[in-house]
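Listing S7. Sequence submitted for prediction.
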Amino acid sequence: MLRLSMPLSIVRIPHHSPGIPRGLPAVIVAEAAERSSAVPRRTRSALETRISLVLALASQASALSLRVLGDLASESAKYAFPRRFEARNLEEALMAVPDLETVRFRVVKRAEQYEIREVEPYYVAETYMPSKSGFDFNGASRAFNVLAAYLFGKNSGSEKMEMTTPVYTQKIPSKREKMDMTTPVITKQSSDEWHMSFVLPSKYGANLPLPEDPSVRIRQVPGRTMAVSAFSGFVTDENVKMRESKLRIALINDSEFQIKEDATIEVAQFNPPFTLPFTRRNEISLEVQRKMI
């Protein structure tokens, strides 16, 4: 006679029950079920826990890397796939600028050597650009680094702001008027003194973080009417003087607009240093006003 070491429950197993071999005694099935339910769930070992944590961190790092690569690709595309302004000649047709935010304007007149623009107000960050004689590259590099530091986090909010175009450099009036920075970078000169400015992203409006460096100032540039002439290549002091002279002479014959009294030259540079000279876009401009009829 068969002796069982544990009590059994009588279980009715239909012949058509799925997953149970035909002919298996019901008592054996019941015993196996009880034994299975009595086995405790196996706990995860410390090694398995560490492995799971490492895998989870690796997954997060991979997702973060993909986001960083996506952001990098997006930023690179702004330079790899530039845009162009409307061209008046072959030289302008070859010029290209990064697809970054820039100053908003409306062209109201086109002439052979320049165009007249109505420029909307914008904010700039500005600093003094040391110079020994006119447009000085060493001074420009120092001023650029000061402004870039403000733009990329050296400010009251430790906020990294988007790069914009162009960078302005402008001559300072003899009264040594101080100006706020903008983007593009602007260099202003009085005798041999210049100022440089970055135009700031428009999304901030007037709510811009304050610079930590006291040599950097924030200023709103009012809406203005500007006569603008574009040219390629690298900006040099002699080139700026020559372009300014040509623009002033050309504007003498304009029937609608004249140079505003005490207007100083502004130079806008749109491209990073690695851009080929013949594809670079630079602009030289003077503030103008309509002639009195």
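Caption to Listing S7: primary sequence and predicted structure tokens for the chain studied. Confidence is low (pLDDT under 50) at residues 1-13, 26-30, 176-183. The radius of gyration is 35 Å.
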